[in-house]
Specification:
alpha+beta; 105 residues; three-stranded antiparallel β-sheet
C-alpha cells in the first residue's frame, strides 16, 4: 500500500494498492486549510538546525568519551563546545527552490 499526500494540503491523502488508485481519505477537520510553502520551508530549516545542534552535542560527548578511553587527561566539555558550535554554524549550500526532474519540461 502506498500513501501519497501534498504537504500543503494535509487534509487529503491518496491511497494506492500496488499500482492502482484505491481511494482518497479526507480529514473533515482539516479540509479547506492549507499551509504556505514558506511555512513548510521555515519548519524544515528549523528542524535541520535542531538536528545539527543535537548531532554537534553528541559529537562533543563522543569525543570526550574517546579521549577518556584513550587514557589522555580529562577533557572538559567546555573545550569541545566551540567545535560543536562551529558545526552548527556551517553554511547550508545554496540550492534551487524548485526540484526539477528529468522528465520535466
Amino acid at each position: 500500500m502506498i500513501i501519497r499526500y501534498d504537504p500543503r494540503a494535509m487534509a487529503e491523502v491518496r491511497v494506492f494498492l500496488g499500482d492502482q488508485f484505491l481511494c482518497r481519505a479526507i480529514n473533515p477537520e482539516l479540509a479547506g486549510e492549507t499551509i504556505a510553502l514558506k511555512d513548510i520551508i521555515r519548519a524544515r530549516n528549523q528542524r535541520r538546525r535542531q538536528l545539527r545542534t543535537t548531532l554537534a552535542d553528541r559529537q562533543a560527548t563522543i569525543e570526550a568519551l574517546l579521549a577518556l578511553r584513550r587514557g589522555s587527561e580529562l577533557v572538559p566539555a567546555e573545550t569541545l563546545l566551540p567545535e560543536a558550535e562551529a558545526l552548527t554554524q556551517m553554511p547550508v549550500p545554496a540550492r534551487l527552490r524548485l526540484k526539477r526532474y528529468f522528465n520535466d519540461e
